[in-house]
Amino acid sequence: MFFIEVILPLSLAKTFTYRVSEAEFHFIKKGMRVVVPFGKSKMYTALVLSVHQNAPTLYEAKEIHQIIDEKPIATEIQIKHWLWIADYYMCGIGDVYRGAFPTGLLLESETIISHKAGVVVNDSELSDDEFLIYEALQHQSSLKVQDIISILNKKNIIPILQKMISKDIIFLEEEIKESYKPKLVRYVKLHSKYETDEGLNNLLEVLKNANKQKEIVLAFFQLQASEKKPVTVKKLVEISNTSATIVKALIEKEILEEYFLQHDRVSFKGETTDKELLLSTAQENAFNGIKNSFFEKDVSLLHGVTSSGKTEIYIKLIEEYLQSGKQVLYLLPEIALTTQLVSRLRLHFGNKVAVFHSKYSNNERVEVWKQTLENSEKAQIVIGARSALFLPFANLGLLIVDEEHEQTFKQTDPAPRYHARDAAVVLANYHKAKVLLGSATPSIETYYNTQAGKYGLVSLSERYNNVRMPEIVLVDLKDKHFRKRMTGHFSDLLIEEIAEALSLGEQIILFQNRRGYSPVIECITCGHVPHCQQCDVSLTFHKNKNQLRCHYCGYAIAKPTHCHSCSSIDMTTKGFGTEQIEQELAALFPNAKTARMDQDTTRGKFGFEKIIDTFKNREVDILVGTQMLAKGLDFDNVSLVGIMNADNMLHHPDFRAFERSYQMMTQVAGRAGRAEKQGKVVIQTYNPNHNTIQQVTNHNYAGMYKEQLYDRQIYKYPPYFRIIKLTLKHRDFEKLKEGSMWLYQVLSQNLAMPVLGPEEPAVSRIRNEYIRTILVKIPHNLHLGNTKKTIQKMLNSFEAVPQYRAVKTAVNVDFY
Ligand code: ADP
Ligand code: ZN
Ligand code: ZN
Question: What values do phi and psi take at 197, rounded to 5?
Fold first, then answer.
């Protein structure tokens, strides 16, 4: 008897045994996919872990349906890493498998397949089966894989479907819903009829009497020669100093030809810039420092102030790893930042840069998957957000985690709840690769690791090109209100500074950590505040839609005209958000052009890039935004940054609140300053003497670190204690209360360490489910693995109690 052990893409910790024939037994290898039946009628794409001859004792092994792959598409190291993630973050290996693979490679009976309107296919190019599937989808716009199986009356169709997906004949339904609209940039090239020498002569003839047009064509040739990359219409208009209409005339005359490319996927012809990147002395020292530290340490932190030119150092380092034939993974906290970075990297590395994006289509993700597996030239450098960590790297040499302090590196839901930075360190270890963490405001944990000698540390304390660190000015809001020097939320000082910057043609960023017009509407008569029906939060007022909205579940109602509790019509707004700031600006500076960047204005896939572009192109004078502004953007004309209210960040009920406030303010402040002029940052606060605000003002990272570290030790938090957070959810309040108390008690009886809770979190009900949390604090001298085993055992007994069976539990290791 012959068997295989597989992982199913389900939230299960177990592996499963299936029967195979002797021939299959000899063919199948670890890392190949097979289609297997599961339960009564389901079918899944499973991943092979091993082949063996031990029949399962608890159940009769079923036979597999078929083998999908000819050779493994997951690597040995990758699977080892997944197992580590499942073990460390206390989740099922199935959770990791499901999260790692592009869904197009994981078809199952429930997957919904669609046909996209407008896609026309030549029937003669389809096989019989393909034709039947194609035809079925003409009658019904979407079908489950299961339905297709019945239609064709055969089980083994997954490879057929996969082939059709890769040929863009059919699609996964989730993809169509999420339809991806890449940003297309308009380019021009010489019309093909003029490409030859003879053509060129004709061209000169054609243009003889059209001077303006000739100028553009000459400018086009110049651009092409000097930049060695595709020429955008925008650039051409800029350089030749003409209007887009004349370019249009040339296109109509068929002298130029227009074409469109997705901006972050522009393909270059060969190497793109001959200009060698020259590092400043400080950068050179940091670069050598990193290389030296890699002799001794596998992980190094580049602590470089904002605008110190960390990216250029990464580029130099990447060059060296590419030369030795290694792959490089570059992790970013936010995919919205990739466009800027990809353009920068493609300038140096041309087509060797691949992007792995959850927003790209399945086919594109599958392509990058295969390229990394085959160690292709085209994916020597992979840029991506945290999930890029799951790609099948063949020969990884360097991992860069930029803005390593960002909390978006930690996945919260669903499992695996992993931290990409920490998981990157483990992956690097398996590949014998190096890790470079970069930040202007390192996380306490990472900096602690450098101080403990675990990670190397390289500091870069000056900005590139002699740009000075911004000057930070504090405005005491209490005093300003008292002396009536406030207009709305703007102090007289901030107004003056904005006026001055505007008069000099400089740009301004205003930071407000809340979106919406003002967070809540309150009844003046009875104090009633409208709340979400399904969540335990007040609704946020959005003025432009005249709506109250829940930021947790999306629930929305029209702004009430009277109080729902006492019917009074005296309603007032409390607190303030980005929308209100923008409106006040319009009244204060009617001639300034403003834009807003928050979750509401960047909702479309490329909304973020659009706003960034208009600001970069100086079409906007003042940009108002939330923390999205704090993420490593590079602007060259911003001289003033205003932080509207520093206090709401400081007062978050979270042990990381001060660390985060420091990081956020320092990062936003870092957008100010240019070569010729020191930037200025105005921070408005009711607590100008607060330690954290003083530390930001004095660029005193060391002071912040020392103070926070002290608190963390006293109050038993990381890096001294590891934290595991258990979250329990149920629709029945009483049952949840009882259940969480039960779990809390068994945990505290069985663990010799602090167990806190059960606590009602600040938002204690979301989408009608009540929430309780329990925190376990594990001191570093105790064995982490054993503690987790105990916790898992307690969770298992909890789930075995009949009345708690329906209570949902989630485990978050190293909770962020
Ligand atoms: P950081 O990531 O450290 O905040 P950046 O890498 O964005 O800083 O660099 C800040 C600015 O300085 C960017 O516009 C970048 O292009 C420029 N810059 C940095 N180093 C160099 C260099 N060696 N040569 C040319 N430009 C550089
Ligand atoms: Zn009322
Ligand atoms: Zn809600």
Answer: -60, -40
Query: What does the alpha-carbon distance between residue 8 and residue 43 come to, in Å, rounded to a whole number?
Result: 10
- Does 687 score more than 50 pLDDT? yes
SS3 623: strand
CB-CB contact of 516 with 544 (8 Å):
no
Q: Which of 151-160, 568-577, 693-702, 705-714 is predicted least confidently?
A: 568-577
Determine how many CB atoms are found less than 10 A away from the CB of residue 242: 16
Q: Ligand 1: does its nearest atom lie under 6 Å from the Cβ of 403?
A: no
pLDDT in tens, 153-169: 888 888 888 888 888 88
- Tell how far the Cα of 312 is from the centroid of ligand 1, in angstroms: 6
**Binding site: which residues?**
523, 526, 532, 535, 550, 553, 563, 566
The CB of 340 under 6 Å from ligand 1? The reply is: no
Ligand 1: does its nearest atom lie under 6 Å from the Cβ of 634?
Answer: yes
φ, ψ dihedrals at 552, nearest 5°: -100, -40
Residues 120 and 138: their CA atoms lie apart, in Å, by: 11
| Dihedral over alpha carbons 362, 366, 367, 370 (to 10 degrees) | 180
How far, in Å, is the centroid of ligand 1 from the Cα of 283? 10
How much is the pTM? Answer: 0.84
Nearest to 9 by CA among 123, 117, 105: 105
Q: Which of 311, 315, 332, 635 to mutate to test the pocket of ligand 1 (most atoms within 8 A of CB)?
A: 311
359 φ/ψ sector (left φ>0, alpha ψ -120 to 50, else beta): alpha
Expressed in angstroms and rounded, the spacing between residue 554 Cα and the centre of ligand 2 is 24
Q: Are 134 and 125 in contact (CB under 8 A)?
A: no
By three-state DSSP, how is residue 807 classified?
A: coil
Rounded alpha-carbon distances, angstroms, from residue 16 to 13, 46, 82, 184: 10, 9, 17, 46
**Where residue 632 falls among pLDDT bands split at 50, 70, 90?**
low
Span from the CA of 532 to the centroid of ligand 1 (angstroms)? 45
Binding residues for Zn(2+) are 523, 526, 532, 535, 550, 553, 563, 566
Pocket-testing residue among 310, 312, 318, ligand 1, by greatest number of atoms within 8 A of Cβ? 312
Alpha helix ranges (H) inside 170-243: 173-177, 197-206, 211-227, 233-240
Measured distance CA(28)–CA(33) in Å, rounded:
9
User: Does residue 182 have a cis bond before it (omega within 30 degrees)?
Assistant: no
DSSP state of 182: P
| Nearest atom in ligand 1 to 305's CA | 3
